[in-house]
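## retry 2 of 3
previous attempt timed out at serialization; input unchanged, resubmitting
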Amino acid sequence: MRSIWTNVVASTLLILIVGCFFWLIVSRRQAMDSVPPPEQREVPEAVQVSTVQPIEMRSSATAIGTVLAPRSIQLRTELVGMVSKVFFSPGMIVEKNQDLVHFDTSVEELQLKSAEAIREMSKSNYTRSEQASNARAISELELEQAKSLLAQANAEVERLKVVIEKKKLRAPFRARAGLFDIHPGQYLPEGTPITMLQGIEETNPYVHIDFMMSQQVADYLKLGDCVSVIATEDSIPATIIAIDSQADKVTRNVMARAELKNPPETLQPNDSVRLEMKFGKPVPMVKIPSTSLRNAPSGAFVYVAARDPKDSTKLRAYMRNVKTGASFGEFVTIKAGIKEGETVVTDGSFKLRDGVLIAPVEKTPSDLKSGVNSGAGHSGE
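## retry succeeded, writing output
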């Protein structure tokens, strides 16, 4: 009898255990069925977007140019002599025909007085000889000799005047003087450099810029075309006034000269400046904010905002590889990869992945701004 009750109790416990087990399985399944799928639980990322805009761009090239003054000379001594006076200082602006340096001319001035006395005597002798010749008192040969002596005396006087004048150095044009180190009493041999004079135009100031351009660019540019000089924060237009008649046989580049009117005061002769040249026909392409562009080992890419193919009410970001062009201001041009009218993510792309759900907002939250520019690229190819 006891064994029967034992079997009944064991069977009851077994039934309870199996029932509890099945109840747990059913409960777990019901709980799992009540949880929404992952796509229903996805939280959209807040981003800013922008529409791709069309633009036409010409091909461009850059070059490094050298600033040259309109007129520039190395002031040198033409004759030997001792410095007697210096009329200018380093860095001073000198006017045309202004006296710069005088050399000692005391010996030449004495020689000039002697030559003038000899000229007066020769002139008097020629006058008497001419009168005597008219009276047939002397021969024609004697008259010609008197005339020749007068001519020699005149030439000697003029020669000494020229020598004295050459020992007075004057500015050939309005210019800024360079550094120098000469003093009164200093003896200078012939050909001694004194200073550099860089010409300055008072009424219409300008400078020249010499630069080299490749054969490809030279095929398009011609006299009168404009180039941009990047000398300050803003670019300054300059006009091409000369192109060399031949290319360099080593580099195959062509030398050109541009004229820059009203140059900034910061530009000095022999300064180096960057020039940008536009050439060829305009090419249609698109532009996007530079913050949209990101870089990866595979190349530049952007996130394009597009409708979810399964649910048109949702917007997702899809990675798109692009071919970049030139950058200007806050924009970068795109040659291939996206089209006009498409929408790209501008701010907040640093946290996106391909196919992620996004929510465009008017203003990116402050917590998104810390990485807005973390991967943006601003350079073209």
